[in-house]
């Protein structure tokens, strides 16, 4: 029992630290870890693929809220444009949460493995792809001045934002990953958000999308509440540490480590689904 608690503390804390630094929430670490320990090796009793996804969604509510409050204090959250994204993200998250009931272990391993590799590639190239300029319209433009005095100009057309975030929302509820893994690269590459604002705004959206997807998973009984309590406590602490680390160091090293781990996990899951 003690070993289980220690393990859950490490999972919740480390996932929240990494997720807050990069702006992906940490669900992309929690879900495969719970599936690996609970479904594959039965170390965590009562865990199924759906319960791992639902439990992660509940944890991300706390991680998203804790991180968002920290980023709001440092003015790294674009509330106005973030609210536009929520129009697609919220209904998509609810839809995805109900679609998750159809995932088998093999299908989860295959699809989530492909998803992990795709996200790791996005993290790898997100600074190398020049931001798109096709959405530069004066009525949507916003200026942001960072702590170094550099000015950024970016815009969010509502209709395109709705279409893209609706799709991301479905994946959020389906996999229990919060959506930040896709939203952060999307804001950087397509909408040309300043990096630090993209991370902070992503955490705000993770909070709201996780609330919506959690409703669907709770209704279906897909939450392990006993494990959730330990994960929530450690995630709150980890999220605040991640926010502080984000302000003090460059996140490139963390991103490089994270994408390498994700590539390996993704490849493992795909192989596991085949053999």
Automatic annotation (TrEMBL):
Protein name listed in UniProt: Probable membrane transporter protein
Organism: Staphylococcus saccharolyticus
Membrane-related topology note: Multi-pass membrane protein
GO cellular component, one term: plasma membrane
Signal peptide: none
UniProt entry tagged with the keyword Transmembrane helix: yes
Keyword annotations of the record: Cell membrane, Membrane, Transmembrane, Transmembrane helix
Record has Translocase as a keyword: no
InterPro entries according to UniProt: TM_pro_TauE-like, TSUP/Inactive_protease-like
Location(s), subcellular: Cell membrane; Membrane
UniProt record similarity statement: Belongs to the 4-toluene sulfonate uptake permease (TSUP) (TC 2.A.102) family.
TM helices/strands, residue ranges: 7-31, 51-72, 84-104, 110-127, 159-191, 197-216, 223-241, 253-271
């Amino acid at each position: 029992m003690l070993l289980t608690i220690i393990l859950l503390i490490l999972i919740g804390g480390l996932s929240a630290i990494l997720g807050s630094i990069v702006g992906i929430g940490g669900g992309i670490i929690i879900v495969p870890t719970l599936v690996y320990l609970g479904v594959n090796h039965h170390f965590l009793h009562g865990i199924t693929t759906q319960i791992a996804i639902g439990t992660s969604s509940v944890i991300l509510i706390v991680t998203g809220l804790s991180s968002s409050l920290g980023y709001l204090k440092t003015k790294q959250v674009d509330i106005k444009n973030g609210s536009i994204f929520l129009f697609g993200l919220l209904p998509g998250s609810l839809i995805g949460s109900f679609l998750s009931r159809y995932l088998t272990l093999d299908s989860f391993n295959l699809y989530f493995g492909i998803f992990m590799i795709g996200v790791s590639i996005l993290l790898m190239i997100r600074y190398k792809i020049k931001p798109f300029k096709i959405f530069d319209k004066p009525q949507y433009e916003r200026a942001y001045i960072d702590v170094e005095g550099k000015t950024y100009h970016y815009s969010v057309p509502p209709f395109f934002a709705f279409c893209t975030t609706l799709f991301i929302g479905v994946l959020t509820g389906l996999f229990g990953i919060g959506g930040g893994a896709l939203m952060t690269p999307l804001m950087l590459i397509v909408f040309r958000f300043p990096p630090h604002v993209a991370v902070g705004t992503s955490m705000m959206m993770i909070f709201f999308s996780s609330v919506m997807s959690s409703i669907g998973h709770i209704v279906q009984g897909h939450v392990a509440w006993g494990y959730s309590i330990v994960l929530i406590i450690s995630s709150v602490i980890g999220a605040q540490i991640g926010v502080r680390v984000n302000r003090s160091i460059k996140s490139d090293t963390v991103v490089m480590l994270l994408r390498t781990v994700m590539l390996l996990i993704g490849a493992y899951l795909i192989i596991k689904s085949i053999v």
